[in-house]
Design a protein that fits this description.
The complex is a heterodimer. By secondary structure, chain A is an alpha+beta fold. Helix content of chain A is 21%, strand content 32%. In chain A, the strands form 13 sheets. Chain A has a five-stranded mixed beta sheet with strand order 2-9-8-4-5, with no helix packed on it. In chain A, helix 11 crosses helix 12. The longest helix of chain A is centred in the last third of the chain and has 26 residues. The radius of gyration of chain A is 64 Å and the shape is flat. The N and C termini of chain A lie far apart (168 Å). Chain B is mainly alpha-helical. Chain B is 52% helix and 0% strand. In chain B, helix 1 runs antiparallel to helix 7. Chain B starts with 7 loop residues before the first helix and ends in a 39-residue tail after the last helix. The chains are: A alpha+beta, B mainly alpha. Chains A and B meet through loops of A and helix 1 and helix 6 of B.
Chain lengths: 915, 215
């Protein structure tokens, strides 16, 4: 079987596919219009018409139609049932640029089936194209361009139409993506008016631009002149001749030209007056040029009457004018070297090279002539710009001329004064100021006729020497600018010297800046002296390199950490300033700023602290206090000296002779808390001779002074009892300062209780607190006093803690503090007592006039002591002893407010009898 | 008229410029002479014979302005056909590239003459250029020998330049004295007092014609 060609197979497949799909895609209805294009924002109505066959198949009619836009159902309110087969939908103010509109039917209840769909496109009709213009580039076809107007959002065709009165030309259709211009496909025909317009058209309409009628020759942009050349003339050093070839359009139209030129190094162009080049030509001579100067030219052309467009600029061409003799004498000046001999001096003649516009050619050399009075002149030919000669001290006249290929300049004359020479007649009112980005110098000419002025200047710097530059000005000039490389923010020292026929005048100088700036560094401030309320600040003048301008003033900013900043302005001539009204003992932060006319710059911050006291203030306080103390001490010594017998009586009481003592017997009413049983043996040893029992009535409810009074009374009694007990009271006092001895004796045979101090209720009230109750023996105390190391051993044994010493128990009880905090008050208070002690206090109180004199421990200590007595001594912790005190209190039988005293008696062991 | 210049003076100027441009023999004649190796004195002299197909200067000057315009318009039409034929005779366009431009310029001149005649109130028929006049056909005869054909074409081109030069001179005279009364000029613009003789017209609006038609 012959094989079918491949293309036949493909065609069959396509045919069959198309036929089958045609049936498959046979729609159930149609939407009209089929491809709607509407104006954006306008109303639009579409109609969906169902086919009868479809309606029968699905058992539907137009009421089953559902409209959708972009798959979203359109509200039913927009539907209109036209008849059984047609339904329309209306959109008011269509606001979509493109929307898919579908017609659907609801089959079998709610099953939605698409019937047909269209795409509704909206946009705008074209606007009238505006600003139509055409250009004919020489040798090319005419191009027209226009403004197409607003975006239409639709495919819009722009057609450029053109015609003569007798002929229509082919339309120029724009290319896609460039609807704003078109190039016609016919050659321009000059001198025939053509009418051109643009038609814009899309689905919504058509718009036509304004017709323009013109002769294409009036829209010509010629090609630029070519082969521009420049030639000079040996006869005239100020002209250059330009030649060029005109563009071919020159055969059709007359041309005018625009010629521009500039010197080679310049950027700005000069222009030949247009009226000089209004006619067609191919050459032009440019005049009034500088000799020996290279000029660059360019040219362009356009239609003579100005209609059309200028051509592009031609390629640039350059030429050099011919040389001429130097037009000016060089600037000429001299310096006398400091080293000189008796008869000769070394003079350096210096001059400036002529600028090109004055040199008018290449300077070959300089001719220098030195002439002394009635002497033959000395001639030099120099290629450099300086000449050093040794001259006598006479007056000389130097002349200088520059020479080029054409000739030499006029001579510059410089008088060199004799030595010595007294210069005079300086310029006056010398000023320097910036203007137009140049540094100008102005002065008032001296009354005497000046031949010329020499201006010298240099940059003032701390880091580099002054390297002067100079320039010469005519004698008639009194204002000029410095013709050098003047930099901004640099300080220039400018010196102006008038030169008279006899010699130079006296120079005058001035400093100036071309442009000031803020200092690049601020001044560093430091303190010179700091007082309690003032501080003297000092700083150094800023180096000129960082000043960047004239320092007009300084500002000092100072503040405390929390305070506001205070600013003080200081004149620039100052280098120190005193800050006053400062607060003592305060940290201050201070910084300085230096200001020029253009701004300021802060220096680093510096801190200082004002002292608390002014100088000498401490001495003023300490010295009087010391003197007062010394005086007090002296008075005390004197007092002690006067009362030495009394003091001796207190300090060194008469110690009884133990060998003459008798065994005392304690009262049987001794409080049972004391274990006298253990002491029975001690008593039997007869180690103490005297026992005193003192009962003090105390009331913790009473104010402390009363207690103190009662204590005073008690102590007075003790003092008075000393006369009988031979210092037992003193021993008691001493023992109170060493409780370890007395309280640790319960297990010690060497100590015995010899006194009990209690207090009863105030005014027959039941005592609430037992202050203390104990007895002490004087004898062991005396022994320990004589050997304090033993006492220390005892204390150490207590510290070792192998057995809790009773004294500690006592102090814990008396302190009223928990056992867990054994560290405070009592030991401290004990120390206080040991330092001043009740005894001392009592003694001092007993001394007239010194009852409240402060002690070395100080009144506070006394007060603490008093408070401790009130709070601790009579504190609730003593309640544990209340019952025992009651027993004692009853037997003590105290009278109201009067403490009873008991003199030691020889009684039975363990008892005593009230006296 | 649509497409025409809005100014009579401009039209006249354009025609003068076109004539000035086209009278230059360096544009067509000289290149053709060099191209056809006719650059000898004898041949040049024999080439410079004013063809009878072109109206003579006297004949042209004897015409009224509308008549002159009609005559020139018709002659240029025939000339355009002759140049087209010549163009076909030449092997390649680049042999005489200016020929195409000249043909365009001839069409442009005819357009300007049409506009000028309309300005003068004597519009021309807007028929396409026809195949020559009734008297002489300007189309070269291919059957003749080549030399004679070249000489004929050379005379055609020389005659073209000469004719255009003549037309240009006449137009310059019109410019120098626009109100000049011609001896045989039955047609003249009669404008009301105080109105400019030359004025721009609105597009598609004919100027008011106040002239008598030729009798």
């Amino acid at each position: 079987m012959p094989t079918l060609p491949a293309w036949v197979v493909q065609a069959l497949v396509i045919f069959l596919t198309t036929g089958s799909t045609g049936q498959l895609l046979d729609p159930c209805g149609y939407i009209y219009p089929e491809s709607p294009v509407i104006q954006y924002g306008s109303n639009f109505t579409a109609v969906c018409v169902l086919k009868e066959k479809c309606m029968d198949n699905y058992n539907v009619n137009a009421t089953y139609i559902v409209w959708k836009t972009n798959h979203v159902a359109v509200p039913k309110e927009q539907y209109t049932i036209i008849n059984r087969t047609a339904s329309s939908v209306t959109f008011v103010s269509m606001a979509y640029l493109s929307v898919q509109l579908t017609c659907n039917i609801l089959t079998y209840g709610q099953l939605e089936q698409n019937v047909y769909g269209v795409t509704v496109v909206s946009g705008f009709p074209p606007e009238e194209p505006k600003n139509l213009s055409c250009i004919v580039n020489e040798g090319k076809k005419m191009m027209c361009q226009w403004d197409p107007g607003r975006e239409t959002y639709l495919e819009t065709n722009f057609t450029l139409k053109s015609e003569w009165a007798t002929e229509k030309f082919a339309d120029c259709k724009t290319k896609r993506g460039n609807p704003t211009s078109c190039i016609v496909d016919y050659a321009p025909i000059y001198f025939v008016n053509i009418e051109v317009w643009v038609e814009a058209e899309n689905s919504l309409g058509k718009a036509t631009s304004e017709h323009i009628n013109f002769d294409p020759v009036d829209r010509v942009k010629p090609n630029p002149p070519r082969n521009l050349s420049v030639s000079n003339s040996e006869e005239l050093s100020s002209i250059l001749k330009l030649s060029w070839i005109n563009p071919n359009i020159r055969n059709v139209i007359r041309l005018k030209y625009n010629i521009q030129y500039r010197t080679k190094d310049a950027t700005a162009w000069s222009q030949i007056p247009l009226e000089d080049t209004v006619a067609t030509r191919s050459s032009f001579t440019v005049q009034d040029l500088n000799p020996f100067t290279e000029y660059v030219f360019r040219i362009r052309c356009m239609k003579e009457d100005g209609r059309g467009f200028w051509s592009d600029w031609s390629e640039e061409a350059s030429g050099v004018t011919y040389e001429d003799r130097p037009s000016k004498a060089p600037s000429f000046w001299f310096k006398i070297n400091p080293s000189r001999t008796q008869d000769y001096r070394s003079v350096q003649l210096i001059w400036k090279t002529l600028p090109p516009f004055e040199a008018n050619g290449k300077i070959l050399d300089y001719e220098v002539t030195l002439r002394r009075w009635k002497s033959p002149s000395q001639n030099y030919t120099v290629n450099d710009t300086e000449l050093t000669v040794n001259l006598t001290n006479d007056r000389y006249v130097a002349t200088l001329a520059a020479r080029n290929r054409v000739g030499k300049s006029d001579a510059s004359v410089l008088p060199i004064p004799p030595y010595p020479f007294q210069a005079s007649q300086p310029v006056t009112n010398l000023k320097a100021f910036p203007k137009d980005n140049m540094l100008w110098v102005e002065w008032t000419a001296p009354s005497k006729s000046v031949r010329k002025y020499i201006l010298e200047w240099c940059v003032l710097s701390d880091s580099s020497p002054c390297v002067p530059d100079w320039q010469q000005e005519e004698g008639t000039v009194h204002q000029t600018y410095l013709k050098g490389n003047i930099e901004e923010s640099r300080c220039y020292l400018i010196v102006v010297t008038p030169v008279y026929p006899a010699g130079p005048g006296h120079p005058q100088s001035v400093k100036a800046y071309l442009k000031q700036a803020a200092p690049s560094k601020g001044p560093t401030v430091r303190t010179k002296k700091v007082g309690k309320t003032e501080a003297v600040l000092e700083w150094d003048q800023l180096p000129v390199d960082v000043q960047n301008g004239f320092i007009r003033n300084y500002s000092i900013f100072y503040k405390t950490i929390v305070g506001n900043e205070t600013v003080v302005n200081v004149d620039s001539s100052h280098t120190e300033y005193t800050l006053s009204s400062l607060t003592s003992d305060t940290l201050y932060m201070v910084r300085m700023a230096a200001y020029t006319d253009e701004g300021g710059k802060d220096g680093p911050e510096f801190t200082f602290t004002t002292p608390k006291f002014a100088q000498g203030e401490v001495e003023a306080i300490v010295v009087p206090v010391c003197l007062a103390f010394l005086l007090t001490t002296l008075l005390g010594v004197l007092f002690c000296f006067n009362k030495r017998h009394l003091i001796k009586k207190h300090i060194w009481p008469n110690v009884p002779d133990p060998s003459k003592s008798h065994i005392a017997q304690w009262s049987p009413h001794t409080p049972p808390r004391h274990n006298f049983n253990a002491k029975d043996q001690m008593y039997s040893d007869g180690n103490f001779t005297d026992v005193s029992v003192v009962e003090i009535e105390a009331n913790d409810k009473k104010p402390f002074p009363d207690d103190l009074k009662s204590l005073d009374l008690f102590k007075k009694d003790k003092v008075s009892a000393e006369g009988h007990s031979s210092g037992i009271g003193g021993s008691s006092c001493m023992s109170s300062s060493r409780p370890s001895i007395s309280s640790g004796d319960e297990n010690t045979a060497s100590t015995v209780q010899y006194s009990t101090v209690v207090h009863s209720g105030y005014r027959h009230q039941a005592p609430s607190v037992q202050v203390f109750s104990r007895s002490e023996s004087t004898q062991p105390l005396l022994d320990s006093e004589e050997r304090p190391e033993d006492a220390q051993l005892v204390a150490e044994s207590g510290d070792r803690g192998d057995s809790i010493p009773p004294r500690q128990q006592y102090f814990k009880q008396s302190c009223g503090q928990p056992d867990t905090s054994p560290d405070t008050c009592h030991f401290e208070r004990s120390d206080q007592l040991s330092c001043g002690s009740e005894e001392d206090l009592v003694r001092l109180k007993q001394q007239p006039g010194l009852g409240h004199t402060s002690q070395p421990c100080g009144s506070e200590q006394v007060k603490a002591l008093q408070e401790g007595s009130a709070a601790d001594t009579f504190g609730p912790r003593a309640e544990g002893h209340t019952e025992k005190l009651e027993t004692v209190g009853v037997e003590a039988a105290l009278d109201e407010g009067i403490p009873k005293s008991y003199l030691p008696q020889t009684v039975r062991q363990g008892g005593y009898v009230p006296q | 008229m649509r497409g025409c210049s809005r100014s009579y003076a401009q039209l006249l100027s354009q025609l003068q410029n076109q004539a000035n441009m086209e009278e230059n023999p360096n544009l067509l004649l000289e290149p053709y002479i060099h191209l056809q190796d006719l650059d000898t004195d004898i041949l040049r002299n024999s080439c410079m014979v004013y063809p009878s197909v072109f109206p003579s200067e006297d004949a042209l000057r004897a015409l009224s302005k509308p008549g002159f315009l009609h005559a020139v318009h018709a002659t240029l039409g025939r000339l355009w056909n002759s140049l087209t034929a010549l163009q076909k005779q030449l092997l390649q366009d680049q042999d005489l590239p200016r020929l195409t431009i000249t043909k365009h310029n001839i069409q442009g001149m005819r357009n300007n003459i049409h506009c000028l005649a309309w300005w003068l109130g004597s519009p021309l028929e807007t028929s396409e250029p026809t195949q020559g006049g009734s008297r002489v056909s300007l189309t070269p005869t291919p059957a003749l020998d080549v030399f004679w054909s070249k000489m004929k074409s050379c005379r055609l081109l020389w005659g073209y330049h000469h004719f255009i030069g003549l037309v240009g001179r006449v137009f310059r005279e019109w410019e120098d004295n626009p109100n000049r009364s011609r001896r045989h000029s039955p047609l003249r613009l009669v404008l009301p007092k105080g109105t400019r003789k030359i004025r721009p017209s609105r597009r598609g609006q004919r100027p008011v014609r106040r002239a008598q038609r030729p009798r």
